[in-house]
Amino acid sequence: MIAAPILIATLSAWWFQFEALRAAAQPVLLAGMVATALEPLGLSMAGLAHKARTADDSAGLYRVGMWTVVLIAAGVNYRHGSTGWAQPSLNGVVFAALYLGSVTGWELRERQAHRQRHAGRLPPQRPRFGVARWLRYPRISIRATSFAIRDNLTDPHVAWTTALTEVRRAREFRRNRRIFRRRTRKLLQHQSHFRRSAAPPEPECPPLIEPLLPGPDGDGRPSQPTQGVDVSDLLPVAREVAAELGPRLSRDRLLDGIRARGHTVGGRRRAAIYDVVRASVLSAGSPDRVANSLPLPGASMRLSP
Predict the structure, then answer these.
(1) DSSP state letters, 147-198
(2) Residue partners of 100: CB distance under 8 A and separation at least 6
């Protein structure tokens, strides 16, 4: 709240000082420079007094300098707004009183804050790190300010050291994480290469056995391969038919014999049952021993390549 009247008073004082210097036949540039130099001088004195009170140092000298600048600015405003020193006008009195009143309000605010700080009713003053550190190391300055607020730190060296240690620890953690990921990736690649090199070679597919028995039409053409066809229910009948046919075994005769015994054979099961019987003949070496070479009915007869 106190900042608004101080800002208004400062702007009005600057304008009145500029107009007073212009009325004294001063150039525009010189009038602006003098008015601009006078107001920041008073504000800088007020800032130094504030820092001295915050640090429990003597602020009397800075306050004297501030009030000197304030009285000069108020006198310029009064003289410019009035027709003479002994002939006050409304403008001169109002603008001079506005400037004096705003600075008086600032002094009262500083006194109240100083008394409350000593009574322990205000939080401790946060450490300041300067403009150079904020411009050069903004991230560390932000962390130091956060640690000072969180841990109630008042020493800027302690807050800065804590923030610097935290930043270094975070940087070291990210570096170790990158190293761990890189080494883990290389280890996994090495293990994968080792497994591929140590794995046994895949067995070669055995060559297809050319049929030694006549095909479906008795002309020696091989029957089509079948996969995943269950013919276990036809094995007993196929064994009997194969034993009866002997050397005259062919697919048509085998299927006719199975159908003659009341079983139905169709689709892929025709080629599948013949392939089983033919394989048994090849392993037995003679069609006469095919009955003993066929698998038992309980065995799995699901063909695979």
Answers:
(1) HHHHHT---HHHHHHHHHHHHHHHHHHHHHHHHHHHHHHHHHHHHHHHHHHH
(2) 70, 74
Give the 3-state secondary structure of residue 115. Answer: helix
Nearest in space to 265 (alpha carbons), one of 290, 241, 293:
241
Same domain, 105 and 82: yes
Tokens of 274: 């013949």
Can you list the residues of the chain whose pLDDT is less than 50?
205-224, 289-305
* 170 domain-assigned: yes
d(CA 108, CA 5): 14
Q: Are residues 118 and 131 in the same domain?
A: no
- The per-residue pLDDT for 286 is 52
Helix, strand, coil proportions of the chain in percent (round to 5)?
Answer: 70, 0, 30
199 conformational bin, left if phi > 0, alpha if psi -120 to 50, beta if neither: beta
Number of domains in the chain: 3
